[in-house]
Amino acid sequence: MSGRKAAKPPYGAYKAFWSFILALSEHPLPQYIEDSAMGNRSGTSKSELYAALRFFELIDSERCPTAKLRSLCENPTTDKMRDLIQLHYRPVLDLRLETATPSQVDVALQSMGTTKGTIPKARAFFIHGAQDVDIPLGRSLVSGRPPAATRRRRGVRSVRGGGREEISPRMRVMPAREKALHPLIEGLIEDLPSEGNTWEASRASQWLDLARPALAYVYKFEYPPR
Prior knowledge:
By secondary structure, the protein is mainly alpha-helical. It has helices at 14-24, 43-55, 67-74, 78-88, 90-93, 102-111, 119-132, 139-143, 183-191, 201-219, and strands at residues 155-158, 164-167.
């Protein structure tokens, strides 16, 4: 790290940050990372992206790409992103993450400069990033809640005569779990408008520009095709 004050942990959406990196990797890096490079994102989303880029030292104080960003965009791999997370989240990674609680992570993030109002979002950014690069996390940390075994409650069901009978958790029929999707794909789906809503052509074009490299990254096919 340089002598300047370390940047605070990012608190935007990790999937939006990584999608932006993938989009940058498709073209020669500009001399400056300006708003125009971020498309039609809102002002808040752009600010969150800048915060993440500064935190990982991917841009300097003048918003010029650093050697780290050039290396990452030349070959945006999970291994390179894992190295960045391990380097810049040292206080968090010093916890035993497989048994750490959300509150412990929050304290570590505060020690790195995170403000109380942004702690939940900063924690979510870290967790989604760690999951994406295969850093092991404990169940309570991923869910933000104690393990399910500590939260089981007996239900009730109606019986003849108007009475009620307790139901053991084992007797309940749980809904089938949906197929797990990669965080990047979930992020793309969340950005789609609901049925019946209009979508500006420029916004749809931006979504497609993000979707193509993201799909190639997740499902391991060559993009653009030769």
